[in-house]
Amino acid sequence: MFKSIKTSIVALILVSTAIIAHAQKKIAEGTLVFAVTANGTTTDVKTKFNGSLTKIEIENGPALVNIISNTADKSGLLLIDVPVAQKQFAVKVSKAETEAQEALMPKYSDYKATGEKQTIAGFNAEKYTYKDDKGGAHELWATKDVDIAAITTGGLFKGLGALPVKYSALINGVNSDLILKSLSEAKVGAINTEIPAGYEVVTMEDLKAMQGGGE
Q: What secondary structure does DSSP assign to the chain, as a single string?
């Protein structure tokens, strides 16, 4: 059933969450849309945020995926709807599980602005260079035009002090390129953290098994 979404939902979740997990404080509510290219396939990833809650919406093959995160306590909820199979799955994510996944992420540091600039999604962006914990050199584009409220200063790019709008990330073996398409400050309303009726509650291990090992 999940063979067609073996870009690895789990890895895509981590990449997507990292988009907004580093931001500063100014915008309390709105929607980010990033184009995420992984394994040769580009997917639009929509992230709604309201206070400490975020909701990432992804159409991945036959599945509709919602990832709801509480950045205040690091808990989360993964909802997968596969209409063609008439299946709906829910996975609860604990603080411990979130922290275990964070520990697997690469560590970045030594951010340096280069002075090179361009406009991305209508924002003034500047190129930064940085290094990973294995000595590798990287670059990204980030903007200081906007800040996003009530979201932690962690994530992939802790210490950058700007919102990345174009970058690459290797997470769970999946190389992904991300670029911001839009940011809307329109109200998104309350984000529900409860499991909807009709969803089968499974574990992350169950989900990986359905994906054929989570590759």
A: --GGGTT-HHHHHHHHHHHHTT--SSB-EEEEEEEEEETTEEEEEEEEEETTEEEEEEEETTEEEEEEEETTTTEEEEEEEEGGGTEEEEEEE-HHHHHHHHHHS--EEEEEEEEEEEEETTEEEEEEEEEETTS-EEEEEEESS--BTT--S-STTTT--SEEEEEEEEETTEEEEEEEEEEE-S-------SPPTTPEE--HHHHHHHTTS--
The predicted model gives 190-207 an average pLDDT of: 91
Give a yes or no: residue 132 inside a domain.
no
Residue 138 lies in a domain: no
Flag whether pLDDT at 210 surpasses 60.
yes
Structural domain count, the chain: 1
The answer to whether residue 149 sits within a structural domain is no
Query: What's the pTM value of the predicted model, to 2 decimals?
Result: 0.78
